[in-house]
Amino acid sequence: MSVWDVFNGKTRFLEDNMNVDKFVYTLGHGYEKFFNGLKEGKIIASKCSECGVTYLPPRIYCEECLSEITEFVEIKQNGVVLGYTIQNVDKDGRHLKEKVIWALIGFNGVRGGIFHKLVGVEPEEIYVGMPVKPVFREERKGSINDIQYFTKTV
Amino acid sequence: MSSDVYIIGIGATKFSPSTPEFSFKELMYEAAVKAYNDAGIDPRKDLDVMVTAAEDYWEGISIFDEYVPDQLGAVLKPVFTVSGDGLWGVAHAHMLINTGQFDVVAVEAHSKASDIVDIQSIWRMALDPYIHRPLVDNVHVFAGLEMNIFMESLDVDRDAVSLVVSKNMGNALGNPLAPYGADVDPDMVNESEVVSYPLRSMDISKYSDGAVVAVLASRKVVEDLGVDAPRILGIGWVSGSSYIEEWDFAAPEFVWRAGQLAYSMANINDPYDSIDVAFIDDRYSFRELQSIYTLGLDNGYSLNELVYNGVTYPDGDLPVNPFGGYLGCGYPLVAGGLQKLYNAVMYMRSGGGDVETALVMTRMEYPSPSAAVAILGW
Asked: What ipTM does this complex have?
């Protein structure tokens, strides 16, 4: 429903809503393997048989040679911090009750990685190359949030 | 590959935090009339093709390209919309003219950012719906990540980045079209609110409304008009993998490759030596330094030295964003590239012939791994 906004006695704006907040995103083969792997507490990547590149998140095509990828492999969960940032405000500029550390996690022999929360680490402790591992939720349903966070490897 | 395409006219509205008195069509109309007048052409007779750059979500209208011909003098002419920044539109116009089939092609882009009630939610809708959107509500987090990796990798000081903000907002004081000109002490930037460490609120360009139209033409038209117009010596654009997990955040390869395409077309081997002035991406302050480095404009300086020695200041060896950049003019969404092109053309015209070559560059925003670079000369 539209409404007319009145400003200083003159009509100046028409207000409306795009109403596009409902959508279904088909996972496809690559993300199906990835998310169902997370559900089982595994990290699944895909490996190009032509040029040997292993991709995370997994996909069914190779960026380098455009070959179809049919090989999916479980990778070791020991990762390292490639970079990080510490979020202080939400999208509306409100201070978060607790700052969130976000990190880009890389894995040996893998192109790409996983962007996720880093917990149990003080900001001054973090360094590029810091070993980390994922902590999975007890109840998992096949989403990126099946990983609760990454934390340092003791 | 060679280039024989000229910018015979360009027009822009003022850039402003809000424009409640004008609709998007009226902003486009103002810029178009100024551009056609500047070019000395009648669009109803002389315009062959109209290219606009827009993204439906920024407009709040699906299939937005239906809404552009009438206010641009392009009714019943070939019209198409590039889903991206206006500099990508210039690249398309350049190709059209180089086919030899068209002599006059205009390019338009605009921003009505002030009409978008919840702009951050639209940014969030751009994130990967599978692996990023379920986690992140604030897209500036990715800028914080990129900034941290860039600064750590290249050993860039916080003060050097803050001086970029101070410089560009100061440069905008002399630009009558820029709304965010200010005399800013770098300490103000250093003490502004942390959004996502190390990114602070003053590192982020504020939005602006505005429209720009550029008129491109073949050599034949330039000779017929008898005008001296800047030529597009080279132009290139590149997109990388959409998986940001694969990006080189320190020096993005898609920026480097876009530069190489433009340099190659313009026969430029030594960018620092060849470029007189640069209008480059500063949506986030650190991006100016990152782009200087990635495009080979650093001349062997460390990025800290480059700033501390004043190389990029208006009276330095390589002025960068001398009319204020996005930090001073505001970030007009997909009109960003054309805003920089407008500033470049104005700078070259005002240079009395001393400014022979200008570089214009911008990036699309997260999660787009895309950059475009244009080289202008006489």
From this structure: 0.93
